[in-house]
What does this fold into?
Amino acid sequence: MSDFPLLNIVDLVKHFPLGGGIMAKPKSWVKAVDGVSFAVSRGESFGLVGESGCGKTTLGRLILRLIEPTGGRIEFDGQNIGALNATEMMPLRRRMQIIFQDPYSSLDPRMKIDAIVTEPLRAIQSLTRSQRQTAAAELLEKVGLRKADLNKYPHEFSGGQRQRIGIARSLCVRPELIVADEPVSALDVSIQAQVINLLDDLKEEFNLSYVFISHDLSVVEHICDRIAVMYLGTVVELATTEDFCISARHPYTRALLLAVPLPDPHRKTEPFSIEGDVPSPIDPPTGCAFHPRCPCRFDRCSQQKPPLTEAADGHFVACWLNKGRGLENGE
Amino acid sequence: MNDKLLEIENLSVHFHTPEGVARAVNGISFHLAAGETVGLVGESGCGKSVTSLSILGLIPSPPGRIESGKIMFSRQNLLDLDLESLRKIRGRQISMIFQEPMTSLNPVLPIGRQVAEPLMIHQGLSKAEAFEKAAKWLDYVKIPAAAKRLNDYPHQLSGGMRQRVMIAMAMVCSPKLLIADEPTTALDVTIQAQILSLMNRLKDELAMSLLLITHDLGVVAQMAARVIVMYAGQVVEEASVTEVFDRPFHPYTRGLLKSIPQAGGRFKSRVKRLSEIPGTVPPLTDIIVGCKFAERCPHAFDLCRERQPDLWRIQEEHRARCWLKEHPECRRDIV
It folds into this structure.
């Protein structure tokens, strides 16, 4: 065990160019991730929530260096992975894996389950075929499938089972960090519960850390220890799950929490809704990106961007209403 | 309630595929009173969408075929109508909103034209009148600067705005019944909240009935007065929304309710483990002799695998398809 957090992200930026051509300069930039910092410690489940287009998926891919950042630093176990070349990355890739959202498009339909699950092993370790087979069979049983399933093709499985296969594939190199990008959103409620429980069990068994990306607050609250809320490429609030549930401070987080319809007919409150749509990340609003939709905005919000500051122990908020540590909200 | 606006009796819809006959809907019956909101709930493949499509005669045939049953709407059996008479009902008396606003709007027509179309067809308005009314409706569903937006194309709008256009299109002729098939599933939560409250408002103002098809129990709890739970092409439970959530009878309904993670900070105790329903929904092509849920049911006993249970009356207005009604002693205590 080292003293470094398993994953440390410092001021990470990713801008995608829009328009332009091979020779021409891009016309504008999509600011998908715009200065995000946080750390994930060993054994922690870190949740990233936000609506479509907030940059959570881009952030997940940046963490694994599936895409190159425009700026900022990603440290994995104390090592700046941005400075490594492909060969130097290889041993680290074994330690970080990803689970994708769509279990239909993330498995090659022409590969047998055996080949799918052991592919990362083939790429990384020099094991014999039979050793790989044994490892795959063991993993399949761990995720609730049978050894006999190794010889089947993806189309023979349901959505929930496919997601289990995706999980087995990511586990086979015994990673320390798993980025789970909306792993249960494509699944039905009863299957969703099965997969969430499986992820919980595996975390214990393999001592995993998760970066859990989801738009579903209730799922994130169930799984994660800490939660970061993203809006237009920046983190607007970061807190422990408990603080998040009980004392969310950012108006956007509160709006998100209130917008979720509760499965309780006795609380028939009209779901609270904030007006308007998420603005385009090409040309985000000046100042606080949330200010055009914010019910509590005042002059400063449209002029200056609020920094992410610590409002209480380990509870960070980017909002001008928040006067900092020890003080309650202005309104 | 005697004024049943819509009554479905013993409807069966089968799809004849090379892999065999898929029994998507198997003898379902339910009704919808005027002004009522009914939630039709179930997981993928339970037949809820097929049910809604068959109401408007939208089942692709072949391979689909309505094998039996009646769909009574204002004392008319919709299944007996020819295409011409059905067209007079579609969009005028019964409208539908689909899940994916991206694919259900025509990408090459401006939205004003799409909203005005039903007015020109059903109410015989002139183009100018129809466009004027369309603008009014777009404004009504809170599309900002609606009059200027009439010539916009769907790709110029966000997902939430497209769904608003869909709603305007469905509502222009003030239908008696609106069928909404997963109207907010593709939307973000804050936009979902906007659309749900819009639908609630319109429903009240126009005294319309709403058949809301969804897999989201939260949405049902907030919107519906009565809930119908479907599993593998059958209705397994039907009751008022409070009955279903407070006293669910069918083990499937119970399982569903227990498997949702509790949201929103208002629940301070974090349940460590979600309860799950083991297994998966059986393929629709399978022929199952007994109860279709028996395979996954924690209470199942011999009778469940031998004979199909009926939809029994549990309470006034509460029905469930489960042998436990007849044999309560077989219920097991499950923590």
User: Anything to note?
Assistant: The CA atoms of residues 142 and 168 of chain A lie 8 Å apart. Residues 7-95+175-317 of chain A form a domain with the Rossmann fold fold (CATH 3.40.50.300).
